[in-house]
């Protein structure tokens, strides 16, 4: 079936697939999780000093999710660093500052997926170039062979 497709149709299809993949990645990373997913995640993460003000009131993020220091992990001085090795600092509307454990898996998965897509694109491009060069060589050999046969007949 691929032999009957024109090159521009194949490139159009490939670019549409790449565009769809990028759009899905953007949509999934931009829209927040549903309320049920947030609650289940909140239950699995440890909160420093058992403060849950961020669950019942508005809060702002002071420091985004970042890795805990090696000292915090080894000494277990900060309880939120024990499970995920990542922490996030929040300030609740009441003024209380809270450190909570956070999950960095989504960002790492997204980064790994993008690396995988780039690798696949590079391998695919290289395979296309090798196939194209091989096709040109074989076409040239066939053309020369036919030309030699026609010259012998004359």
UniProtKB/TrEMBL annotation:
Keywords: Membrane, Transmembrane, Transmembrane helix. It comes from Bactrocera dorsalis. The keyword Ribonucleoprotein does not apply. The gene is LOC105225263. This is Protein JTB. Gene3D superfamilies: 3.30.720.220. One of its GO terms (cellular component) is mitochondrion. The keyword Repressor does not apply. PANTHER family: JTB PROTEIN-RELATED (PTHR13041), PROTEIN JTB (PTHR13041:SF3). GO terms for biological process: mitotic cytokinesis. The lineage of its organism: Eukaryota, Metazoa, Ecdysozoa, Arthropoda, Hexapoda. It comes from the Eukaryota. The chain crosses the membrane at residues 12-31.
